[in-house]
Amino acid sequence: MSETEFVIEPGRQDIVMVRMIEAAPDVVFQVVTDPELIPRWWGPHSLGTRVDRMEVTPGGRWRFVNIDAQGGEYGFGGVYHDVVAPERLVRTWEFEGMPGEVALETVTLAAVPGGTRYVAQSVHQSVEARDAIIKGGGPKGGREAMDRLAEVLAARAT
User: Distance between CA atoms of 8 and 120, rounded to whole angstroms?
Assistant: First the structure.
C-alpha cells in the first residue's frame, strides 16, 4: 500500500497531501463523490461519518459530521466551486469548531502507470489557521482517511 505524503512548508498557508492509488481516476472520482461511500472512508479510523448533504455540482453544498465513540459530533462543510469529472474537485472546507476559518481545497486526480495520483491542496486564510489544522491532527486524520479510501477502492476491484 502506498503512503500518504504531506508537504507542509513553514510560513505558507497551504497543506498538500499526495497519495498514489491503485485505481483509475474515474473509479476514484466515483468513490470520492458518492455519498453512500463517504462514511466508509472519510476521516480517521476512530470516528464514524454521517453525510448530511452532498451536492457535487458547482454551487452545491456539502456537510459531513464525524462522530466519536461518546456521540460527540464534529461538523465540516462548504461549497463546491468546480467539478470536472474525473479530474478535479474544488470546494471550500470549514470545520464548524473554528467558524470563519474557511480553506479552499483543490483535489486533482491524474492517471499514472498503475493507478491515480491523488493530490489535495488546502489553502487556508492564514499561516496560523493552517498551523491550527496541523496541531489539531489534520495530517494524521488525512493519512487514515487515505488508507481507508485505498481499502474501499481495493475492495471494489475484487
Answer: 12
